[in-house]
Write a structure and sequence with these properties.
With about 200 residues, the chain is an alpha/beta fold. The chain has 2 domains: about 1-115, Rossmann fold (3-Layer(aba) Sandwich), CATH 3.40.50.2300; about 120-199, Winged helix-like DNA-binding domain superfamily/Winged helix DNA-binding domain (Arc Repressor Mutant, subunit A), CATH 1.10.10.10. Helices cover about 55% and strands about 10% of the residues. The chain has 11 helices and 4 strands; from the N terminus they run H-E-H-E-H-E-H-E-H-H-H-H-H-H-H. It has helices at about 15-25, 45-55, 70-75, 90-100, 110-120, 120-125, 135-145, 150-155, 160-175, 180-185, 195-199, and strands spanning about 30-35, 60-65, 80-85, 105. A 4-stranded parallel beta sheet has the order 1-2-3-4. Helix 7 crosses helix 9 and helix 7 (about 135-145) crosses helix 10. The longest helix has 15 residues, at about 160-175. It is globular and about 45 Å long.
Length: about 200
């Protein structure tokens, strides 16, 4: 299918989770299209290991399962995209391009699962007021798809400091992933929902 899209180049294919990690770390692709269920190591653990060793690699989870016990662990492991296997060719290529740019892409059927973690945004809206100005700046950069290294460069601070800010943001907003924090920020109006522009 990807042969029909010149803007997408397949640089490697892995047959199990362990090989997926090894290939990702040797090839350093812009995007890893990660299967959820694989021999030797599942997609969640493979994603966790890839992001720990190469945080600049963006992971798009590709799964036939859209349940909460699969989606949330995937995002917590570091995936910034989650698409179901019954998605159209257009949806899949769009998701890959979005994730390649560091932007969050969630299949419509799984967005509600992430929002449940956030609960009622109006009820939780006050939590945004607990963030410091520095933390708000970091959250805005997160919404633009910037990784910790890029945020550190933009704000002229250390990666350790960025990591600390991100940790505080997740704690204060009562969420467990960067993706959920960004969606929360969009829901309360702190940042613009860029997905509407692409619709």
């Amino acid at each position: 299918m990807f042969q029909n899209h010149a803007e997408i180049e397949v640089v490697g294919v892995a047959t199990n989770g362990k090989k997926a990690v090894d290939l990702a770390l040797s090839l350093r692709p812009d995007v890893v299209l990660m299967n959820m269920v694989m021999p030797e190591m599942d997609g969640v653990e493979a994603t966790r290991q890839i992001k720990a060793a190469a945080p600049e690699i963006n992971v798009l989870m590709f799964s036939g399962i859209g349940s909460n016990d699969k989606v949330v662990p995937s995002l917590n492991a570091g995936a910034i995209g989650y698409i179901l296997k019954d998605a159209s060719e257009n949806e899949l290529t769009q998701a890959i391009q979005q994730v390649a740019a560091g932007k969050i892409w969630l299949h419509q059927d799984v967005i509600s699962l992430v929002l449940k973690q956030i609960k009622d945004p109006e009820e939780k809206e006050h939590l945004i007021n607990t963030l410091t100005e520095r933390e708000l700046d970091v959250l805005r950069y997160m919404a633009l798809g910037y990784g910790n290294r890029e945020i550190a460069k933009q704000m002229t601070i250390s990666i350790t400091t960025v990591h600390s800010h991100v940790s505080h943001i997740l704690t204060k907003l009562e969420v467990s992933s960067r993706t959920a924090a960004v969606i929360y920020a969009m829901r309360v109006g702190l940042v613009k929902d860029t997905s509407d522009e692409d619709a």
